[in-house]
Specification:
single chain; 106 residues; alpha/beta; 3 helices
Length: 106
């Protein structure tokens, strides 16, 4: 989308067909997809710093953080579920979450 964003925003058309490299129709894209793109939704597990996370995390919507490390540099605009416990491993936190929700572990 970054390749065509400026051109599409300057055109009067609203909808654009999407085709693959072979010219096969894949679907339609509306101009609003560029103006209001859907963000990927992510849950951070065992880290809470940008440097330890996937590329372009700042463009995603962080839904939740589960970690046992010190609180890092992640910043968010909405309230989220953040579970941080001083234990040896994030696995311990996940295990406790299973027990709290009465979910059997195979």
């Amino acid at each position: 989308m970054e390749d065509v964003q400026e051109e599409i925003l300057n055109e009067n058309h609203t909808n654009y067909p999407i085709v693959n490299q072979k010219g096969i129709y894949l679907g339609m894209m509306n101009k609003k997809h560029l103006l209001y793109p859907n963000k990927k939704k992510v849950i951070l597990v065992d880290h809470n710093e940008y440097s330890q996370s996937a590329k372009d995390l700042d463009q995603a919507e962080i839904l939740e953080i589960i970690d046992h490390h010190k609180i890092g540099d992640i910043s968010i605009t909405l309230s989220i579920y953040f579970r941080n416990m001083p234990v040896g491993s994030t696995c311990t936190i996940i295990y406790n979450m299973y027990r709290e929700n009465e979910v059997e572990i195979d």
